[in-house]
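Email to the structure team, subject: Lipoprotein YajI model.

Hi all, the expression group asked for a predicted structure before they design truncation constructs. Nothing fancy, just the tokens so they can compare against earlier work. One-line instruction: predict Lipoprotein YajI, return tokens.
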Amino acid sequence: MMIRMVWAPVALSLVALSGCSTTAGQPQVNQLHQEVSQLNQQMQRLTSQASAVEIQGQLNGHSQQGAWLLPQANTPVELQTQAGTLRLSLSRVEAEANGSRANLTLQTRDNTPLPGLEATVVWGQLDPATGKPLEADSLTQTIRVPASLTPRSSVIVPLRLGGITPDQLGYVRIHQVLAKTAAPTP
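Reply from the structure team: attached below.
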């Protein structure tokens, strides 16, 4: 008799609790799971970006010439050049048939007109274990920015970074920046 008295309330409690797990609350649970998943993805992206910013800072801190840009850092750097202090940033890194393409923005720090210039661009992969550049497999090109007839303080230079996919692209290094003066007209 005592066992029946205990089982009856337990059975009623189970029936009542099973009503709490109906599908009425399921969309809210699914939405919560989706939001948690999105937050985890954002956290992973921010952690990756923070790590890249740290590596970029270390590379630039030890660099005697030139500036290092890491696509994942998404952070501009300043470079002292013959043409003055330039602010460099990398954007729109995308795949193309033979590798990658990206936009390199060159901007004067004090919004003075940007002179014509020439620079060497080196790109390659980072060692996944150390975060250091794998310079043995790096590729190089020279970019030329002509002086503009209308003064401008910034310019976007499209880069073609052949031989390496956006996922493999670990760094872009800009160095040997030389100001080019216009030839005098006779």
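DSSP finds two helices and eight strands in the chain. Residues 115 and 180 are 7 Å apart (CA to CA). Ping us if the truncation boundaries need rechecking.
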